[in-house]
Write a structure and sequence with these properties.
The protein contains ten helices and eleven strands. The protein is an alpha+beta fold. It has one domain: Jelly Rolls. The strands form three sheets. The chain has a four-stranded mixed sheet. The chain has a four-stranded antiparallel sheet with strand order 2-6-4-5. The chain has a three-stranded antiparallel sheet with strand order 8-10-9. The two termini are about 15 Å apart.
Length: about 270
């Protein structure tokens, strides 16, 4: 299998200056992430960061009682482990693969050294890019907290599905009700009821962990304002980083991929 078989590359990596990317390239590993795989636990030392290509990663806050709630979603527009270059070596959240696929793995020390590298305008450009991405991620985290507190499970589910669609090139999501319940911090029965309402309204079809979005515009109309706010803020902060949406074809995404993006492939089992 060659790197060209990964049709959707990470947009944050694609935005880096070619000289910076050239230094990172030998250290990048293309890995296969499995649904439900834990990339790092909360308060554990960050040994690697991940730049999703076709995978989606959820950041979860875990309580002492063992319950969880999703605080952010990361796809081909971003990366895990932002606390690394903010001065910390651990993350307060657990990173779990929400949608299986490919990602680029990079040793934490390599990213830390590159972020701290003295080198004039180009290094500052990388720092500015990653810090703006971090701000966008913090906005998503804050808005998720507002949504989970003030909006219905139906609206939260719509937000979750729409954010996932923005990070995939398909209208089919492989997500179990248990995983969605853990992400939203609600009971599984609540997800069953909410999914039933959306299906009855003709917006989705749900079968054995596969959610097919039939009417995206209807889903957006039913969602609360949180989805649009997060997306608009991301576009404002990072206009050069384009989130490919589910309406893009695989061929179009592949044509738009920079030729410099390739990686040494190491598959995780």
């Amino acid at each position: 299998m060659h790197s060209s078989d990964a049709p959707h590359q990470n947009r944050l990596l694609a935005t880096l200056h070619p000289d910076i990317y050239a230094r990172l390239h030998p250290h990048l590993e293309l890995v296969s992430l499995q649904l439900g795989q834990v990339l790092h636990e909360s308060d554990s030392q960050l040994r690697h960061v991940f730049f999703p290509a076709t995978a989606i990663v959820s950041l979860l806050h875990i309580t002492h009682e063992g319950t969880s709630a999703g605080i952010a979603m990361i796809g081909n527009e971003g990366m895990t482990g932002v606390s690394l270059f903010l001065g910390g070596e651990t993350s307060p959240s657990r990173a779990v693969v929400q949608s299986g696929g490919l990602a680029y793995r990079l040793k934490a020390q390599v990213l830390h050294d590159e972020f701290s590298r003295a080198g004039g305008r180009r290094s500052c450009t990388m720092q500015n890019l990653l810090l703006r991405y971090t701000q966008a991620l913090l906005i998503q985290t804050a808005q998720t907290a507002v949504c989970n507190r003030h909006h219905s499970v139906d609206q939260q589910l719509c937000r979750c599905l729409l954010l996932s669609l923005d990070r995939l090139h398909s209208n089919v999501l492989v997500m179990t009700q248990e995983l969605i319940a853990n992400m939203l911090g609600v009971r599984r029965e609540g997800i069953t009821e909410a999914a039933g309402k959306l299906q009855h309204a003709g917006l989705i079809e749900y079968r054995r962990g596969h959610i097919t979005v039939i009417n995206r515009l209807g889903l957006e109309a039913r969602a609360c304002e949180c989805y649009k706010l997060v997306k608009n803020e991301f576009n404002r902060l990072l206009p050069e980083v384009i989130i490919q949406n589910s309406n893009c074809s695989t061929a179009a995404a592949r044509d738009a991929m920079p030729a410099c993006l390739s990686a040494r492939q190491v598959f995780m089992h």
